[in-house]
Amino acid sequence: MVAGMWIIAFYLLGTVAGKEVCYPRLGCFTDDPPWSGVPGRLLTGLPDSPEHMHISFSLYTRETGNNSQVISAIKSSTIQNSHFSSHRKTSFIIHGFGSTGKKGWVVEMCLLLLEVENINCIAVDWEEGAKGTYISAVNNIRVIGAEVAYFINTLQKLFRYSPDEIHLIGHSLGAHTAGEAGRRIQGIRRITGLDPAGPYFEGTPPEVRLDPSDANFVDVIHSNAAHFPAVGLGMYNTTGHLDFYPNGGTVMPGCNDLIPEMKPSDFEVMIADATVIGGCHHSRSHEFYFESILYPTGYLGYPCETYKSFESGDCFPCPQEGCPMMGHYADKFPAKLKRVNQKYFLNTAADPPFTAWRQKVFIKLSGVKKTRGDINLVFHDTEGNTKEYEITSGLLSQDQVYTKYLDVEINPKHIKEIEFLWNKAIFTLLWARLGAETIKIIHGEDGHMSTFCGRGTVTYGVPQLLTPC
Known about the structure:
The chain is an alpha+beta fold. It folds into 2 domains: 35-346, 3-Layer(aba) Sandwich (Rossmann fold); 357-468, Sandwich (Lipoxygenase-1), CATH 2.60.60.20. It is built from 10 helices and 22 strands. Helix 4 runs parallel beside helix 9 (279-294) and helix 6 crosses helix 7 (173-184).
């Protein structure tokens, strides 16, 4: 009887032997290198058992509506009796540290995906394994990844379901969880890493973190990359086929939480407060992905080596092979597998839906020969939306063409008219008049040029309307 109890305890709790722990179905986990004791990963500990973490898989389909069905690979009848269909593609959504898969962005992502695609969407919850210390959560993702792989194996056995039908979407530690599942199951169609966690993953061997070999296609959004002296929660280095760096990848417009400057020795302090520091910037990655589902053209990424080069216009417009869209439709890019570690940069708006279209604007002035002041343009679309942008300030000359790269929040295909506005400097003559003779716009996506023409001149503060010509 006693021996039988020990056998049951072995299967329920796993067995720890030195630096290794083994769990039924999932195999054994060690803390040997590269899992610990390598540069950038000087951590200790082993993953908790799957039972301790209460891992669950909730299925959302068009049949379930806003509700879900809890399904289990251990009790495969729950999958067979659910609305899971082997004739549909499947997306797994995996949260990160301190989060949950039972509510919030994970569920919202599933419901939105179902609006645009008839798929199986599975929300993976490992809240109990993600709520302790950050280091324990880092260790735990190996078991979560093994559980996702076990689930995919079960689908293969039950339905002859191909991994090529599967898309794993993971945020922060969830991105590396997806990588662990992909390391175990070859042939997964796509993994999307949403700001993959940086601490204990940056600069580590590929086995430990998300990398391009984990799926047929790996795309990554970096929104809070740790780039010293700034400290962030995400990775800075490329870790996919296509790596997108919106707004440079570290600090996101519209986020008010500060990204402090710290010494490497302060690193553990940052980890201890990981849910506070950079939280908004870190979360932007899954917010960008969410919005990209509905706005497929507003997240164009430009191939560039650095954000500075992108900002200065060195990588404008898109090359002949085109540019990929960051987010849900990144897999539509024909050259996505041309090589690994392709870097793409873009700017976004500060508020939802965060979309922006990069354009190069040229303004030719008419009116007084020279004056001082500033020039703004107001874009109007066909639905009555407007957005104002400053072009230049200082000496304004009739002989000069003023140029600026703008990330306009209005889709260029919907621009109906443009207003030219100028304001005088303190000592500018009251009767001075200026106008925009022409405004030419080069669109970043295809290099196409649009021209808007104006008539006459206006005094300061009075708008001049320009229409396509």
